[in-house]
Design goal:
Strand order of the largest sheet: 5-4-6-1-7-8-2-9
Mean pLDDT: 93
Low-confidence stretches: none
Structural class: alpha/beta
Oligomer: single chain
Order of helices and strands: EHEEHHHHEHEHEHHEHEEEHEEEEEHHH
Length: about 400
């Protein structure tokens, strides 16, 4: 059996006609999906909208709290919990040969888990994995190909986060995938997955209220699956996640059900009651970054929570949301409870935030000396600043 996984970094689904009928005209990737046939999952989310955490969710089928990669700098190679069964472990159990293209810098950054088992072949370029794929596709060997494409992300870096960056990003992706499958009988591929890890904001979509940073533009992902024999392009609107590739592969390989997975097979009629999404407010890479934004997506609602604010939206369709003015206290308590259950840092961060607010309150208070005399509060007054300038570096006994 041949399994192909094509990772398109940052490919945003609501800019694609195949996933969003409000898009004016089909783009390059829409033409690709239409030619391939298969299923577009139009309500698919990542619990963690950045590459390190989202890939960890993909590999393990687990939320960040359960897989160990809890911030945007904690890559799978260094932080993935060793006891978490990955998709590579599953392929190893069935004696698959797994091919992955990865540059040296990506490998050092930590793109892949450190303890991958089985017959793994790493290739340092897309050209090399293409050659291997095209040479081996008709063989009887059970093989899995993980093809990592950064073209869309690079295009946005080159042209800007705008329609031009989107156009050329889609064009480069389609060109490579067309080359990959040129002269190949698509029916030689038993299962094809094309997916992204997170979205992004266009230059004209700057979010003034950071509470809403985990909206669809950033947390919704592209998820397209083709099974051998598919002859139409379908849309599946069930609530799904990048975590679902793990249990889907478990089903394909006919392994014993992995009870530790937080995901649900994409082929199942079952869907999530809710998906919890958590993210940073500061996207620069730094030590010990904090998660400060959370949200919950259900079929009917999208709830947003920050340290100081929250908002609830009614989902009217895949692409239409209406804000609810006031949130019932019981509903808020239930929603925050769901976040607390899934997010490792939620409760601790809220406590620290409350302590910081107490510090601010202390700073703004005027206290008296214990003897009852009023304090000068010189450090914060203009007179105090002048006093410090006059007596800087001098010790005066009053």
């Amino acid at each position: 059996m041949n399994l192909v996984f094509i990772f398109c970094d940052m490919l945003r689904p609501n800019l694609l006609y195949s996933f969003n009928e409000n898009v004016v005209a089909p783009g390059e990737m829409d033409h690709l999906f239409d030619n391939l046939k298969g299923t577009a999952y139009t309500n698919c989310y990542t619990p963690a909208p950045d590459s390190p955490r989202s890939l960890a969710c993909l590999y393990t089928g687990l939320y960040p709290k359960n897989n160990g990669c809890t911030t945007r700098i904690k890559w799978p190679k260094y932080y993935l919990k060793p006891e978490a069964e990955t998709i590579f472990d599953m392929l190893s159990k069935k004696s698959y040969t797994t091919h992955i293209n990865l540059t040296e810098s990506e490998e050092k950054t930590g793109f892949l888990p450190d303890n991958i088992k089985g017959d793994i072949c790493l290739h340092d370029s897309t050209d090399k994995i293409m050659d291997v794929f095209r040479s081996n596709i008709e063989s009887d060997t059970d093989s899995a190909y993980f093809i990592n494409l950064n073209d869309y992300h690079w295009s946005m870096d080159d042209y800007g986060h705008n329609s031009m960056g989107d156009y050329y990003g889609q064009k480069h992706l389609k060109t490579y995938i067309d080359m990959l499958f040129q002269g190949i009988d698509i029916e030689d591929i038993d299962y094809l997955f094309i997916y992204s890890d997170h979205g992004f904001l266009l230059d004209n979509e700057k979010v003034e209220n950071q509470l809403l940073l985990t909206n669809d533009n950033r947390s919704k992902i592209t998820m397209f699956v083709r099974k051998k024999g598919d002859n139409i392009l379908k849309k599946n609107r069930k609530l799904s996640s990048i975590m679902d590739i793990h249990p889907t592969l478990n089903e394909i390989l006919e392994l014993t059900e992995n009870k530790n997975s937080d995901g649900i097979s994409l082929f199942s009629d079952e869907e999530y009651e809710n998906i919890v999404i958590e993210d940073h407010k500061n996207f620069s890479v730094s030590l010990e970054q904090l998660i400060e934004n959370w949200s919950i997506r259900t079929r009917e609602y999208h709830y947003y929570k920050s340290l100081d604010d929250d908002a609830l939206f009614k989902v009217m369709s895949d692409h239409e949301y209406i804000k609810i003015g006031s949130i019932n206290g019981n509903i808020r308590e239930i929603l925050e409870g769901k976040i607390r259950d899934v997010s490792l840092s939620y409760q601790d961060t809220l406590i620290q935030h409350e302590i910081l607010k107490s510090y601010q309150a202390l700073y703004n208070c005027n206290f008296h000396y214990s003897s009852g005399e009023s304090r000068f509060n010189g450090r914060r007054s203009i007179a105090g600043k002048i006093q410090r300038l006059l007596y800087r570096n001098k010790y005066i006994r009053w």
